[in-house]
Structures are given as structure tokens and as C-alpha cells.
Specification:
Distance between the termini of chain B: 45 Å
Number of helices of chain B: 13
Order of helices and strands of chain B: EHEHEHEHHHHEHEHHEHEHH
Oligomer: heterodimer
Structural class of chain A: alpha/beta
Number of strands of chain B: 8
Structural class of chain B: alpha/beta
Strand content of chain A: 5-15%
Strand order of the largest sheet of chain B: 2-1-3-4
Strand content of chain B: 5-15%
Number of helices of chain A: 16
Largest sheet of chain A: 4 strands, parallel
Number of strands of chain A: 8
Strand order of the largest sheet of chain A: 2-1-3-4
Order of helices and strands of chain A: HHEHEHHHEHEHHHHEHEHHEHEH
Largest sheet of chain B: 4 strands, parallel
Chain lengths: 410, 353
């Protein structure tokens, strides 16, 4: 079912692009590469690893392993309206409904045979301890080996060295399973693609800062976190360049992402993954534009292709959802300043202790830079308690408040 | 064990290296989520759906019901503890706070890294007014820790034999005292208890159970199990036996290395696991239940605890396969929440008879 879904998606987009090149767009190119990844995941032919969010996907690509973080599947199931069945399956098996629904959906999908059997699992301790628990369950379910990358919270030389050593051990682990040694030349090539993609992604984000912004809410939804899955490949560069060129053209043509942009918003953590009207509501009713997402940023330095492990370790430690909340707030405040944000929306994903857990501290931190935060009570994957009317009311009140106070950045 | 200690070192997690605090001349002070009726203010900083242990510890701190601390040590044990660290720094900026990395596994890379984290903490404690920790001091403290663990083992054996007046509830009081006293006082108190003659405490007719989980420090809550007909034949709680339980120190002469092995080798909280044996937590529970000859197993887990919630289905299934009855209780660290479970505990015990 999932293979057919992705295969149909790939074929459909390829046909459109072939028959009508004028339809080519950055978003279509992105969707095509994501669909191709999905097709490979479910092809049954590739070497496959299910991973935690901050696994080094470029290292795995260099070693010929198709890999993906499991939350991607939770999000896909939600986006296609199929998550409820799998959430119920997990709950019936004893997984508590007050845990993260990304994870419950994945566990349910695994139990119902909707997750292809991998060659092995790679858990990462960031962003959350809940994620590790899921990987341990999945490894037991499939009776496959599990490698754990412990991502330190502290960003210091000892922590970077420790994580770099773990990544070297990971390469050995992968080699043992694939029978193929790591080629440092291939890794250097993959890292070079990652560096190029990261540089172009930085350009994309700088363009999105433009006032008025060239982006609309759907342009960059889930972009940063999903683009990480393409790192180490030329496709990552191609997709990033398509976004950069599209936004540059919009700025040159004076075509903002949201016509009549009035309010500029920062979206904290992840978007709501199932179909909903929040983004349309913001743009069409209030001319409010999500110009920035917390996870759409390049928080790491270029990685040395000749000695890539320390750089990959720094990258994993640097993500906004890792480390103390002070660092996270500093990053958010910096984004607010760069993007000239009026207000921030935090969809407090029910069951997320890591990201949502600190919501009060995040709100207090952004208040100090004069950016109000709207905390929405919502589960980003589970539709069963979604109350659109309540969301509408809260968003309307928030936007009204923002309109009355003006832009804090002058 | 080292000299007289007055400087309080706060902590909230059973993985805290208490021997290191002792070696630094500090008195461990566990900020327990019991002992007061503090206003619920944690929700202003953290989401309501976060571990009630962390929220109550935070409520306690926000209410000012924490003594002056020389340091406050946090372990990177789980998401909730990370957020507690963040919130603590926001509400008590005057405290010297330390955050210690704690690997979730004890693999070949993890142990040396944890050793370095402990050495770094030793340096930080000295900078915060603690005594400099040399090898001899730390070795003394490790010996004291192990002695405390052995003495507690003996008290648990007496509880099992029904020869410790006050039973498991009194033992819980002792655990709580041990968590917030200088090692020297703890040793003296435990030694006196062990030297006292055994007395019949009357636990006949009770049904043996294994009690495991995380935070359940209220002696009244522990007493409730006995009132419902359960004899706690063995217990594995982070506010109970697990705090002073120690793994094998190994043969390395470096005391920091020994300390790391003793901590990482403790009976594990659900957040610590063996990646080569996924969900072995469930098999450990089974093994412990069999060893205790328990007729049933009771888990008491605080709500929203992801590490436990992720492993409990495997525990349930493993016990089911062995036909060992299992009762899961979720709580919020208050006696009230457990009181509501009395009927369920009574029914469970009725079934076991």
C-alpha cells in the first residue's frame, strides 16, 4: 500500500514535469524527491535503516543505506488521513494515549505490517527520550540490531569528541551489517554535497527574511527537518537551489508569498501534520504569513570532508531541540530578530515532553524580546481531539492583539 | 566517607553520584516531591503534560520550600529532568546548578565519557566550595556508599522476613532520610538499626508481590499496599532501593571509573537499557519477580513518564506469557492519587489469594 502510494506519487509528478515543464516548481521538486525516498524505503530492495531524528543521513547515504527517521512515517500517516487506525492499534497494544502520537502511529504501523523490515535501527537520544523507547520497541518487534547514538546536551569539545567516536563506531556497525567498508572518499563526497546543500539552504532562509517575505505557509513546511534526509546526495543541493531560485525570482518580481502581508509569524517546532485550515486561515483571513519555522535553520558550520565525524557530531548537537532551553530561546529570539517577527505560534504537541515541555520558558524568553507567543493545545498527528473552532477563535484573538501592537522591530 | 558535612548538594534523580557529593564534603539533599502542599505553579513554566515528579519538585522550589543549597545537581536522565534543569535555573538563579551527562547505555564509548563527566563535576563541586576530591577521598566515599547499600539490603531482608517493625513503610522513611543526610549519619543510623535485634512484625497472611516503578516516596503510600494485603517481597523504585543500589565497580583502580561502573550498572531505571538486548527491562522485571517468589507484580509509575510508558507493554506481555498477574498504577506523586487506586489494589490482591 505505501509503496504503491509513493510510486504513484513519483510517477504522477514525473509525468507532469515531463509533459508540462511550466509546471516545474520548487515544491514539486521537493515532493518528488521525498516521494522517491518513500518509494525506496518501501521498495524491499534497498538496504534500510530506521533512525532517530538526528542520525547522520549523509554517512548512511555514503554507505549505501536508505535511511529515514521514523517520525517521518508518523507525519506521512497523519498527512494522508490514515493515522487514527495506527494510533488505535498502538493503544490497544498498551501504549498510553498520552505519549507522542508520532511515535504511537509508528508503533501501530509496525504492528500492522506497514513499516518495511529494516536491516537495522539507529536510535538517537535527541531530540527526545520517547524516541529512544520507540526504537527499542521496534528493534524488538523486528528482531533487528539496534545502535544507539547518545547525543550530548552539552556543546563542548569532550561531547563533540564522544559523539564523533560514536559515529565512527556506527560506521563499523553499518559495515558489519552491509559487508561493505566505509569509503572515506565516498563520505567526503557526501559531506561535500551536505555542505553545498546547507549553504544553499542558508541562502533560502535569508531570502525568506525579506520584507515582504517571498514565502507562503506551505512553501517551507517541514522543509528543514525533511531535507536532512536528503543530505549527502546531489538531490539535496538540487532541491535547495530550486527553493532559492524561486524565492529570488519572487523578490525580483515583487511577488510576496502572501499578498498584502501584514503579520509575520514564527512557527515553533513542527507544523500540524494532518489536513487542517490553520495556514489558510492565517493567510486568507488575516494576511498573516508564517515566514519562519524554528527547525528551518542551518545551525552548524561546514563539515570538513577530510575529517567529517567531528563536524557531523557538532551538527547533531546543534539542533534547536537539543541542549538547554536557554540555547533554544536564544535561537528563537535570533530568528525573531532576523525575520522581523510579530508573534510566534507554538503548537504544543500533546505528549512531547522535550519540545513542548518547556513552553512556558519559551514564551517567557520570547517575551523578553517583545515577541508574544500563542500556545495552541493541539496534537500534531492525532486528529481525534482536534477542535478547529477553538483554534480559529484563539488565532483570531492572537492576530487581533498583534495587529494592535505593531511590529516590535519597527 | 569523609569528614563533617554541612554544605547541601541538592538533587532529584536516583542516578546522581552521591559518593562524589560525599567526597566533596557535601551533604546530599534529595528534593523529594512530598512533605508539603505547595501551590501548583509549575504549569507557568512547563507543560501540564510533563512528569508530575518534576512538576512537584518545581512547585516545591517555587514555594521556597527548599533550604539553601551550595549546589544543585541535575542528571541528563530524561526529557523531564532536562526541563526541570531549565526551569530550576529560571526560578532559582542564585543556585549553582550542574548538569551531568548520563548515557542511556553503558557501551564502550559511554563509560569513558561518563567518567569524564564525573571528573568535570568533581572540579565544579570544588569550585562551588566543596573539598577537592582526590583518589583517596573518593575511594572512601565509594566504600561508604557500598556499605550503605549493604546495610539497606539487610533491612530489606528483615522486611521480607517480617522481622522489621514498621515494615516497608518504615523502611521508606529510612530511605527518605538516607537521601538527605551526610553519609556518616546514614551509616551510623543504619548500623544501629541492623545491630538491633529482629522483632516479629507480623506480615503473615500477606501475598508476596514485586513492586517496581519510579517515584513513590510517601511512606503512607507504601503502607497502603500492606493494608491491601500485599507483602512487598521485593521493590525497585527510584525513591526506594535504587538510590543506593550499586553496580559492580570493576577492577580498574581509578575510583572515577569505579564510580561510573557502579552508577551505570545499577538496577536500571527504564531510561537506561542494553541496546544489544532490546526490552530486556521486561525480562529483568520477570527475573526479579521470580527471584522474590512474587505471586504478582505491581508497577507504580508517575504519569507522562515516557521511559516507563514505552517499556510497560513489553512488561505486561512478558508477565502474561508467564501467567504472572500484573497491576499498573499511574500516579502523580500524591497520596491522593494512590488512595483512589486502593480498590484496584484490593481487587488485585483478592485475585492473587
Amino acid at each position: 500500500m505505501m509503496f504503491q502510494y509513493f510510486d504513484t506519487l513519483v510517477t504522477g509528478i514525473e509525468n507532469v514535469l515531463e509533459n508540462d515543464p511550466s509546471q516545474k516548481s520548487h515544491r514539486k521538486l521537493y515532493a518528488l524527491e521525498v516521494a522517491r525516498l518513500g518509494r525506496r524505503l518501501y521498495s524491499g530492495t534497498d538496504r534500510l535503516a530506521w533512525c532517530g531524528v538526528v542520525a547522520p543521513f549523509d554517512l548512511l547515504a555514503a554507505m549505501g543505506v536508505t535511511s529515514c527517521f521514523v517520525e517521518f512515517i508518523g507525519a506521512m500517516l497523519a498527512a494522508t488521513g490514515a493515522s487514527s487506525e495506527f494510533l488505535k492499534e498502538a493503544e490497544d497494544a498498551g501504549f498510553a494515549p498520552d505519549t507522542c502520537a508520532y511515535h504511537r502511529a509508528v508503533l501501530g504501523a509496525g504492528r500492522k505490517g506497514m513499516m518495511p523490515e529494516p536491516d537495522f535501527f539507529i536510535a538517537t537520544s535527541a531530540p527526545c527520550t520517547g524516541g529512544i523507547g520507540v526504537m527499542e520497541n521496534m528493534a524488538a518487534m523486528f528482531k533487528k540490531d539496534l545502535f544507539v547514538l547518545n547525543i550530548p546536551q552539552n556543546d563542548d569539545p569532550a561531547s563533540v569528541a564522544y559523539l564523533a567516536d560514536q559515529m565512527r563506531s556506527l560506521a563499523d556497525f553499518v559495515s558489519r551489517h552491509t559487508g561493505q567498508p566505509l569509503s572515506m572518499n565516498r563520505l567526503a563526497e557526501a559531506v561535500t554535497y551536505s555542505n553545498r546543500a546547507a549553504a544553499v539552504m542558508s541562502e533560502v532562509y535569508r531570502l525568506a527574511e525579506h520584507v515582504p517575505s517571498p514565502v507562503c505557509a506551505k512553501d517551507l513546511r517541514n522543509f528543514g527537518i525533511v531535507a536532512a534526509l536528503l543530505l549527502g546526495t546531489p538531490q539535496a543541493v538540487t532541491v535547495a537551489e530550486a527553493f532559492r531560485d524561486a524565492f529570488a525570482a519572487r523578490i525580483a518580481n515583487n511577488t510576496p508569498g502572501v499578498p498584502g502581508e501584514k503579520i509575520r509569524l514564527l512557527w515553533i517546532q513542527n507544523r500540524v501534520q494532518f489536513k487542517n485550515n490553520l495556514e489558510d486561515l492565517l493567510e486568507n483571513e488575516f494576511h498573516a504569513c508564517i515566514v519562519a519555522d524554528e527547525l528551518n535553520d542551518v545551525t552548524w558550520d561546514p563539515i570538513d570532508p577530510a575529517d567529517p565525524f567531528p563536524g557531523m557530531a557538532k551538527r547533531a548537537i546543534s539542533i534547536p531541540l537539543n541542549g538547554p532551553v536557554e540555547r533554544r530561546v536564544k535561537h528563537l529570539a535570533d530568528m525573531a530578530r532576523r525575520y522581523k517577527i510579530h508573534g510566534a505560534i507554538n503548537p504544543c504537541h500533546f505528549g512531547c515532553r522535550q519540545g513542548t515541555g518547556a513552553r512556558g520558558l519559551v514564551a517567557l524568553g520570547l517575551k523578553q524580546v517583545n515577541v508574544p507567543v500563542l500556545n495552541l493545545e493541539v496534537d500534531c498527528v492525532d486528529t481525534r481531539n482536534y477542535a478547529p473552532g477553538q483554534m480559529h477563535t484563539r488565532i483570531a484573538a492572537f492576530i487581533e492583539m498583534l495587529e494592535n501592537r505593531g511590529n516590535p522591530w519597527g | 566517607m569523609n569528614g563533617p558535612q554541612l554544605k547541601l548538594a541538592g538533587f532529584a534523580c536516583a542516578y546522581t553520584p552521591l559518593a562524589l557529593l560525599d567526597a566533596a564534603g557535601m551533604t546530599p539533599f534529595r528534593v523529594l516531591p512530598v512533605g508539603g502542599d505547595w501551590p501548583d505553579q509549575a504549569g507557568t513554566l512547563l507543560h501540564d503534560n510533563i512528569c508530575p515528579h518534576v512538576k512537584r519538585v518545581l512547585n516545591r522550589a517555587m514555594a521556597g520550600d527548599v533550604p539553601e543549597l551550595s549546589v544543585m545537581v541535575f542528571m541528563n536522565s530524561c526529557d523531564a529532568m532536562r526541563r526541570l534543569y531549565d526551569a530550576w535555573r529560571a526560578i532559582r538563579p542564585q543556585d549553582r546548578t550542574f548538569f551531568v551527562e548520563l548515557p542511556p547505555t553503558a557501551d564502550e564509548n559511554a563509560v569513558p565519557y561518563f567518567v569524564n563527566a564525573l571528573k568535570r563535576l568533581a572540579g565544579e563541586l570544588a569550585e562551588a566550595g566543596g573539598d577537592p576530591i582526590d583518589q583517596a577521598r573518593l575511594l572512601n566515599s565509594l566504600v561508604a556508599w557500598k556499605t550503605i547499600a549493604n546495610l539497606q539490603d539487610e533491612l530489606r531482608a528483615r522486611v521480607r522476613r517480617g522481622s522489621f517493625p514498621g515494615g516497608p513503610a518504615r523502611l521508606q522513611e529510612i530511605y527518605n532520610q538516607c537521601a538527605s543526610r551526610p553519609f556518616s549519619d546514614t551509616l551510623a543510623a543504619l548500623d544501629a538499626l541492623v545491630r538491633a535485634p529482629e522483632e516479629a512484625a507480623g506480615n503473615k497472611g500477606l501475598v508476596p508481590v514485586l513492586l517496581f516503578g519510579n517515584v513513590l516516596p510517601d511512606p503512607e503510600a507504601i503502607a497502603l499496599f500492606e493494608q491491601c494485603g500485599a507483602k512487598i517481597a521485593d521493590e525497585d523504585l527510584c525513591t526506594g532501593s535504587r538510590l543506593f543500589a550499586a553496580g559492580d565497580p570493576g577492577t580498574d583502580p581509578d575510583p572515577f571509573r569505579q564510580l561510573a561502573s557502579m552508577i551505570l550498572g545499577k538496577p536500571p531505571c527504564a531510561r537506561t537499557f542494553d541496546s544489544s538486548a532490546p526490552l530486556s527491562f521486561a525480562r529483568n522485571v520477570l527475573s526479579r519477580a521470580r527471584q522474590a517468589e512474587a505471586a504478582g507484580v505491581i508497577a507504580h509509575v508517575v504519569k507522562f513518564c515516557d521511559p516507563y510508558l514505552a517499556r510497560l507493554p513489553a512488561v505486561r506481555e512478558t508477565l502474561r506469557q508467564q501467567q504472572i498477574p500484573f497491576l499498573l498504577l499511574e500516579g502523580d506523586c500524591t497520596l491522593g492519587s494512590l488512595g483512589q487506586a486502593r480498590t484496584r489494589i484490593e481487587a488485585f490482591m483478592e485475585m492473587l489469594r
